[in-house]
Design a protein that fits this description.
Elements lengths: L7 E5 L4 H12 L3 E6 L2 H9 L4 E5 L5 H15 L4 E4 L14 H28 L3 E6 L12 H21 L4 E8 L2 E2 L13 H10 L6 E2 H12 L10 E4 L8
Parallel strand pairs: 1-2, 1-4, 2-3, 4-5, 5-6, 6-9, 7-8
Length: about 250
C-alpha cells in the first residue's frame, strides 16, 4: 500500500531534475500523475517509460496551458487531488547585470506561475472533496545571496502566496504548504542555492552544513509525498526546510 493510493496529482516542471524525481516517487506511492513541462521531448520520453503517467505541455505562465493540464487529469483519471508547483527558473546575475526582462521572467515563472496553478486547480480539488497543494520554494526564500535577487524575491513571495492560499482554501479542505530545498543534487547541477558555484565554494558550503553533504532529489520527494498525502492532514500554511541545516547558521 502506498501513501498516495487513489490520488491523482499534477506536477509541474516534471520532465527533469527534482520534478522528475517527484513524478517517479508519486507513482511508486500509488498515485496517478499528470506532469507538465516546456521540455516536450524530455517529457514525452519520460512518460513513455512510465505507467499511470501522462505528459502535457505546460508553460506555467500561460492560463490556457493550465486549463488544459487540469482537464487532462480529469479526463484521464477522473479527478484531481494534488498539485505540486515545482516549475522554476533562475539567473545568477547581480542587480546591475540583470535586465528588467530577465527579472520579470523569473518572477512570472516562479511566483505568478504558482499563483496561476493554485487558481487553476482549486475548482477540481474542491469538487474532489479537498486536496493538497505543495509549493516548491527554496532556502532562498529565507536568506538572500549575491547574484540571486530576482530568484530570492520570487521564493520569498511563494511563502506569502502559500500562507494566503492556505487561509482562503482551508474551508474547502484544501491544504497549502511550502517546501524549501537547499543543496540538492539535480540535473541542473546543484540548483537553487549553489548554481555556478566553484568546487571550492561547494566544498565550503558542505563544510558549513550540519549534515556535511548535499541531498539527493529522492530525499526531497519523500517530503513532498508526505505533504501531499493524508498523513499530513493537519498541516497547512507550513514552511518545511529540507536543507541539511543550511539556514541554521554559519
Amino acid at each position: 500500500m502506498g501513501q498516495l493510493d487513489g490520488k491523482v496529482a499534477l506536477i509541474t516542471g516534471g520532465a527533469r531534475g527534482m520534478g522528475k524525481a517527484h513524478v517517479r516517487r508519486f507513482l511508486d506511492e500509488g498515485a496517478k500523475v499528470v506532469f507538465g513541462d516546456v521540455l516536450d521531448e524530455e517529457g514525452a520520453k519520460l512518460a513513455a517509460d512510465l505507467e499511470n503517467a501522462t505528459f502535457v505541455h505546460l508553460d506555467v505562465t500561460q492560463p490556457d496551458d493550465w486549463a488544459a493540464a487540469v482537464q487532462t487529469a480529469l479526463d484521464a483519471y477522473g479527478a484531481l487531488n494534488i498539485l505540486v508547483n515545482n516549475a522554476g527558473i533562475m539567473r545568477h546575475k547581480t542587480i546591475e547585470e540583470m535586465t528588467l526582462e530577465e527579472c520579470r521572467q523569473i518572477i512570472e515563472v516562479n511566483l505568478i506561475g504558482q499563483w496561476q496553478g493554485i487558481k487553476s486547480v482549486t475548482p477540481a480539488l474542491r469538487a474532489a472533496g479537498g486536496g493538497s497543494i505543495v509549493n516548491v520554494s527554496s532556502t532562498e526564500g529565507f536568506i538572500g545571496a549575491e547574484g540571486m535577487s530576482a530568484y530570492s524575491a520570487s521564493k520569498f513571495g511563494v511563502r506569502g502566496l502559500t500562507k494566503s492560499a492556505a487561509r482562503e482554501l482551508g474551508k474547502d479542505n484544501i491544504r497549502v504548504n511550502s517546501i524549501h530545498p537547499g543543496g540538492i543534487i539535480t540535473s541542473m547541477s546543484m540548483q537553487d542555492d549553489i548554481v555556478n558555484a566553484t568546487a571550492d565554494r561547494a566544498d565550503s558550503l558542505m563544510a558549513n552544513l550540519p549534515l556535511r553533504r548535499l541531498a539527493s532529489t529522492r530525499e526531497v520527494s519523500g517530503l513532498v509525498v508526505y505533504l501531499a498525502s493524508d498523513d499530513s492532514s493537519y498541516c497547512t500554511a507550513s514552511e518545511v526546510l529540507v536543507d541539511g541545516g543550511l539556514v541554521s547558521g554559519f
